[in-house]
Design goal:
Elements lengths: L1 E3 L5 H13 L8 H6 L4 E6 L2 E12 L2 E9 L8 H15 L4 E6 L2 H5 L4 E3 L24 E6 L1
Parallel strand pairs: 4-5
Antiparallel strand pairs: 1-2, 2-3, 3-4, 5-7, 6-7
This protein binds coenzyme A.
């Protein structure tokens, strides 16, 4: 089941993101950040167990980011990540956004959902607020991708 995240999910979302952050696949998020952005998040749940998460974060009048997309390793390749990304895309359409971007090491996964690779310089400066928190800053090797809605 894909649903909006609830307060009780936050600690499990943080654990999930931490697993992949420790492998260098994504940024970790503090509990404070997660509570503040809780309404950005969708989760995938099966019988009370959190299997995945993804967030749609509005950045500007025509732009949002899909971020913190993660699926527990044992539940991978079953379409859960895709369902979470589709939930973010649907909401972006509903609220009138024109573009969604992502910064990712998994370009093939996002390409399946229509995202195309772009030069990072195409993204507005406001996007880079989180980068200062990244251990790789300023030598970013993530792929920037955009989906036009
Ligand atoms: C990337 C990730 C979210 C995919 O979730 P998932 O539930 O396994 O994805 P799906 O089952 O919906 O996969 C859909 C398709 O995307 C592609 N895909 C999935 N995982 C992929 C990966 N790791 N690398 C490249 N392509 C991938 C495949 O083509 C897959 O279709 P297939 O299984 O028929 O070949 C998951 O592997 C993950 O959490 N990875 C670690 C965190 C991360 O890197 N997140 C993305 C950056 S924000």
């Amino acid at each position: 089941m894909i649903r909006k995240a609830q307060i009780a999910d936050v600690k499990n979302i943080q654990k999930l993101l931490m697993t992949f952050a420790n492998q260098g696949d994504m940024l970790s998020r503090s509990l404070s950040e997660l509570y503040e952005s809780l309404r950005d998040f969708y989760v995938a749940e099966d019988e009370g167990v959190l299997l995945g998460a993804a967030a749609l974060h509005v950045v500007w009048d025509d732009l949002a980011e899909v971020r913190s997309v993660a699926v527990v390793e044992d539940a991978g390749r079953k379409g859960i990540g895709s369902s979470l990304v589709q939930a973010c895309i649907s909401e972006a359409c509903e609220i009138g956004l024109k573009r969604i971007f992502c910064l990712t090491y998994k370009p093939d996964f996002f390409a399946k959902h229509g995202f195309r690779l772009v030069d990072k310089a195409e993204l507005p400066q406001k996007v880079w607020g989180d980068c200062i928190k990244c251990p790789k800053f300023p030598d970013c090797d993530e792929n920037a991708m955009i989906l036009d809605l």
